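User: Predict the structure for this protein chain, please.
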Amino acid sequence: MASSSDNRFRIAIDIGGTFTDIALLTDAGLIHQSKISSTPSDPSVAVIEGVGQLLAELSIPPGAIAEVLHGTTVGSNTILQRKGAKTGLITTRGFRDVLEIGRIRMPDMFDLTWEKPKPLVPRRHRMEVTERMAADGSTVEPLSEAGVIAAGKALVAEDIEAVAIAFINSYRNPAHELQAEAVIRANFPHLLVTTSCAVLPEMKEYERTSTTVVNAYLLAAMRSYLQRLESGLRAIGVAAPILVMTSNGGMLAANVTCEKPVLVVASGPAGGVIGAARLGVARNDRDVIVFDMGGTTAKAVIIEDGRPSMTSEYEFRDGISTSSRFIKAGGYMLKVPAIDIAEVGAGGGSIAGIDKGGLLVVGPQSAGAMPGPACYGLGNNRPTVTDANVVLGFINATSLAGGKLHIDRALSEQAIRVHVGDPLGLPMLDAAHGIRAVANAAMARAIRAVTVERGLDPRDLTLMAFGGNGGVHAPDLARQLGIPRVVIPPMSGIFSALGMLASDIEHTALKTVSQRLDRMSVADLQAIKQELRRQVAAQLAADGYQAERTAFLWEADLRHEGQATELTVPFEGEDFAQIRERFVAEYFKTYGYRDSTPMELMKVRVAGRGLRDNRLDFGAMKIAARAGSSRSGTRPVSFARGEPAVAVAIADRNALGASPRQGPLIVEEFDATIVVPPDAKAHKDAIGCIVLEFEA
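Assistant: Here is the predicted structure, written as structure tokens:
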């Protein structure tokens, strides 16, 4: 979807659990921003209202918008709330129970209270049909079309809305799946249908079936949402194409997203990670820990040499989702490319309370946007992390979002006293410090999951923090983990939306190989790459990106002979020596030893990128000033339990320059608050980032 020269503005929208963030980029590189409370019942309402308000505020005609870039939580929320389509599965006879069998593993072998997630398709809605493909793709038994029709009739009788089709070995030969799909569409045209060969043409029956089922489960919700969003934007005059952020940090056209919603389940945080990678390169800081704390969750990702850590599979689960290659079976398997994120349910809206054992707990339940923290005055009387920060003085006690959101400190005090302070016999300030400490411990766990648990020392890295609450908690986390430097990007409160403006259109394709590496020739690899390149180039061309505006990134999935799992390594050209070397290094980094058995090349994957000529350049961007954004004055802040509050100066980002300024200091912006503690110095770099450095 190459941009039109007649349209000069691009809008990026990130829907969070509390706020919907909007960034607008002009062709001159000037960025305008806005925040509006999210509308959980229908996220598109906040998007349409927020876009309309910003365009009216800036006197920009809706027809001047060239692209609408969107990060959405519709996929993840649909799974969490179990509000997806009523889904059925048609599979090979004898494979009805693949979803239950899974990997025959538990995420924690010592947790006797663990309950396996219920399959998205109950057993009574899984239908077996006669067909069989051999492992080499040859037909063992033809597909029974009568069996497919019978299965369709049985599912329709159960009011099924979407059907997933996953046959054994269809990654080698998809003929039976395509035949079954045609039969279902011809005889039951009202059903939504998805096949595993279209979603995931890879070996491993459970992973492929689970991913296909999730895709079918999300089809109705994603299509309905994007249709409402498109019609709502058109109603206010915005007719620009909608591009959706994928889980691996690329952008897809809305019509592709409607067919493969499984690719955007982790859409929400991806924009910020891509933005952080591009900003890190612009700052010449290529190895960073990304920390994104919003209203509902906190997330951590590692960026090495300017590239986010990626995974070819992840499990979507409730509550805490700590990324680990060694913890499996905790959720629904999605074998799709994604940024490797550790996430915890600790955000500004996370609710604090006392558990049955009398201990203070924070999250993962969140007050969200409605009713929000107690200080919002919208009906919630339970304390949240935001309420603790209000009471301690870290964030403004009267309003947020540049005055658009009014808050009441007295309500925060009451909630903390009633639900935490009185039950534990603690003074209010001590109770607030306790809430903050518990939340920080959960967030530190996420950072350790992507550093210490991967053999990386966080003390050697920079912590790049964003999100509405990132700058409030990052200094404590850095001190706790020994990280010497914290970088807060410009517009940190809406940085995930900003990151989308720095992203590219991206399509991926893969081919299952399953051959020993030492038995392959250069010609074999060239043929595989040519086939994949043609496939992706055609998709990019359909989006308006010809060869001169495309780039291709290649990855290989390898394992040692006889093993069941693979590791992914990037490669260029057809250099087998390079592939071997990188796999050996990745294997040692992951498992801590080297294996001498032969290597198998299992899959080759390509990510084809359409290089957008209007991509945000962090080194040249300019931020539009907002009326009333200037801050000054002082307020008392309690930095440590048991110590008296101190008067801290309040300033805006422009008050900082290249010369370090000793804390304490509170930097207030329209979109975020940044805390500079007494033991840190802060300065602003050439790009506009605020850099905190701690005393040794």
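Residues 505-610 form a domain with the Dna Ligase; domain 1 fold (CATH 3.30.1490).
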